[in-house]
Amino acid sequence: MAVYLDNSATTKPCREAVDAVNYMMTENYGNPSSLHSAGIEAAKSLISAREAVARVLGCEKDEIYFTSGATEANNLALFGACAAKRRAGNRIVTTAVEHESVIAAADELEKQGFEVIRLAPDKHGNISVSDFAGAVNDKTILVSAMYINNEIGSVLPVDKIRRIIEMKKAPALFHTDCVQALGKIKFSPKKLGADLVSVTAHKIHGPKGAGALYIKKGVRILPRTFGGEQEKRMRPGTEASPLIAGFGAAAAALPDIQAQGAAVKGLNSYLRELLGKIDGVEFNSDENASPYILNVYIPTFMRSQTIVQELSSKYEVYVSNGSACAKGKKSHVLAAMRLSDEVADKSIRISFSRYNTRHDCEVCAAAIKDITEKHPR
Fold it and tell me: Which pLDDT tens digit goes with each residue over 239-263?
């Protein structure tokens, strides 16, 4: 039986989400914007989904704007915030370890004339509060920092950013990519002091193609697309009601976060113990990282992409060599951590979900041990 340990890339949809998608596609298929009874019933399902996502985030349902995923939500947050704040300043503060969608958006904004400060991590992927404090000034209009890094699991001090913005008297909006935090740790935009929060369905056992951007009530950003009244004109276009309903169902089906986290932490520790017995293995994720992600250097002559393919084809163990959106390119996160080329080129990401077991850890560790013995560096 295959062992799936690539949950930071995507998760297996839960039964509740699958049923919700199927129901919306086969029975409740009206256009949510239509005024007849079929449209009204579909609109009711969207309201329920919005409420479910808002409940998990601890915010009001009117602060949730559905998108096609976190990539779109991140782009809407960055471009929308900078367009709205352009007259107030020119500086954007972000990090060198963000998701590709934030990095690419920041690169484009830099081409448009904005000053972009990219904070570099230490060798464990951490960025200090003082680093953020040193970068934010009174001309900063946006701070964008992910909560949990998607490749190594480092937890950034996003709960301190609002205070820094206030201390520096900056006109900045604060955006955080919480894709790897949703359903894994308890947080709310209000407690974080965030103006904008990006999340997505398929990382919490929902369908691909549905995400959301939290926009704090009273915060103004400008839309990126035009042509309809949906999502209060912030994200117009016919809503993907089956996927949104699946998102809501997945959010409603989330188990107790603390209990789930404790179980996953146990799996992470167990796999660390097993892999630690293999000569030459090194952990790029430190002990304070999210337990859902474990980044590991594998001592073999093969590069990470080949290791991933070998684990898949010969052992049916599914992991990754970084962000799925990077399509196998060299990890910008490990490069930013200034790890050696040897380590960066031969590291893989193992990521857990609530469906994983100790047996999965044992199969994964045995496969990696076999690879290192058959293909030593």
Answer: 999 999 999 999 999 999 999 999 9
